[in-house]
Amino acid sequence: xxxxxxxxxxxxxxxNKSGKYxxxxxxxxxxVVIGILIALQINNWNENRxxxxxxxxxxxxxxLDLEKDEAKLDYYYxxxxxxxxxxxxxxxxxxxPNLSMGIDxxxxxxxxxxxxANPTNYSNTFESAKSMGTFNNFKEKERLKALSQYYSDFxxxxxAFSSILRFVETQFEPLMYTLPEGYxxxxxxxxxxxxxxxxxxxxxxxxxxxYRNLSIDYEKILRTPIMENYLIGDMGRTYNALGKITxxxxxxxxxxxxxKYDH
Length: 263
Hints:
Blueprint: H1 2-14, H2 18-94, H3 103-110, H4 124-131, H5 141-152, H6 154-176, H7 199-207, H8 218-222, H9 225-262
Helix pairs in contact: 2-4, 2-9, 5-9, 6-9
């Protein structure tokens, strides 16, 4: 094809047809420009297609992360709802001296309070794409903004859980350490909600026979104002965590629906 155009140019020059040559040269330039524009258009189309595929793949993976987040939030909600139930039960006995729990029930209701939830956030897909600058070619800026807000708000969950853990370590554990743990049996951990299986721990503790014949005066701790103050403080912190969890559950549900709707 190049030889063909070169041959035409040479013939026009040799025949001294400058007018026709200029027209031909202009036409050739126009053809070259059109070719370049077509090539650019094809290249842009390919780049847009790749960007769209990358964006679709990103949101598909984010959707999987959000589903894992949702399952984790359901666990957090159950964990903290049960914690409030246990705190409520203990506070009921604290404020009613005519009621007696018995050492076994006391052990079953105080033991879950030693445990706290570990905040986990599934944000690898988002953070990886963010660090690689992948978002620059994405069109769904509003969804990215909502996702960014969702992941940055995870610090609220971390702070709420940390507040409970800190309160347990500085207030509850020192109080309970004044009481011998002879109340622990195989059934002590039955009310414990934890991601790890702790059943073997309580079986092991119960298997080590205690020959001391200790008199465990749990009522002394149960009736102390310090215990009441702790239960109320823990309940307040737990309600705060539950509120943060509920708000995040609403956010993840909204994000999932929007991603599914747009795809």
